[in-house]
Design goal:
7-stranded mixed sheet, 28% helix
């Protein structure tokens, strides 16, 4: 299979179908409803970046600023199963953090998502709390955070 370079581009409502398909492929029952994906792709202040190989969207990240723009939330981050372990999630995360440019960064993930946990720990995130039975099947959510960096805020 030929190696294609990954492009990182701003996503828009035009990417709705591709992002919905990725949400379903990556999160199953936890996938966001279409209206939430459309909002994330349309709201003016949201950060939304897609990873694209050729014409195919293979990953995305959504971020938003909260608490008077001091806290950035990485709301959703996904990479298609066939494109994992290539650094795409790490690059999406870093680009989202940079665009959010907030003093604090936070995110939540399933307790059992070892791959995501390893990524976030390697990027400086630390667990700050547990949301018991956060997911539909009763699994806990881990909340992680880190400082946003010197140029944030």
């Amino acid at each position: 299979m030929p190696v294609h370079s990954v492009e990182y581009l701003h996503a828009s409502w035009r990417d709705l179908r591709a992002v919905l398909a990725l949400e379903e492929a990556c999160f199953g029952a936890d996938a966001w409803p279409w209206i939430d994906v459309l909002a994330a792709l349309s709201l003016p202040d949201a950060v939304r970046i897609k990873a694209q190989v050729g014409a195919e969207v293979v990953g995305f990240v959504f971020g938003e600023r909260r608490d008077r723009r001091r806290v950035g939330w990485i709301s959703s981050l996904a990479v298609a199963p066939g494109h994992r372990r290539q650094g795409i999630a790490r690059e999406l995360l870093r680009r989202c953090e940079l665009e959010l440019s907030t003093r604090q960064l936070r995110l939540a993930l399933r307790r059992a998502n070892e791959g995501a946990l390893a990524l976030y720990l390697s990027e400086g995130y630390r667990q700050s709390e547990v949301w018991p039975a956060y997911y539909r099947d009763g699994e806990d959510g881990l909340v992680m955070g880190k400082s946003g960096g010197a140029n944030a805020g």
